[in-house]
């Protein structure tokens, strides 16, 4: 994956140099450095919190509440947590990392991320209701409500299918 981003960066740099010369390339590097400096503390703090969470949440609890044998209850709990999870990807992805490393199945993690992305109550309150009105926000939220369960279901089925194919 790193090789892909290195190649993409070199390609983008080449295109930038071709269009605007060395000054454009320097400007792009400076903007990238500013972005790196501003984001790095967030990423470090999010990973630190993920490490704390992994130490605080016993793997047995994850297995019993969110594991394969928890069924739709696990999907519901993950969807509720995702919908209530504030913040951007720097908050949500470390949580999923901790869940996966603690034994949560792929389907549960996908339910969490799907709910976080389409059912986030904080985004609905902060952005959708003030800008688009409560009717729009509520209708969009209700239409999106089944998506974490659908995503978890299909993730479970695809994971089972690929696991069977690998063992065959």
Automatic annotation (TrEMBL):
Key words, A-Z: Cell membrane, Membrane, Transmembrane, Transmembrane helix
Spans traversing the lipid bilayer: 28-53, 74-99, 105-126, 138-156
Cellular location(s): Cell membrane
Membrane topology according to the record: Multi-pass membrane protein
Gene Ontology terms: cellular component: plasma membrane
Main location: membrane
Domain of life: Bacteria
Keyword Transmembrane helix: yes
Homology family: Belongs to the UPF0718 family.
Record's protein name: Permease
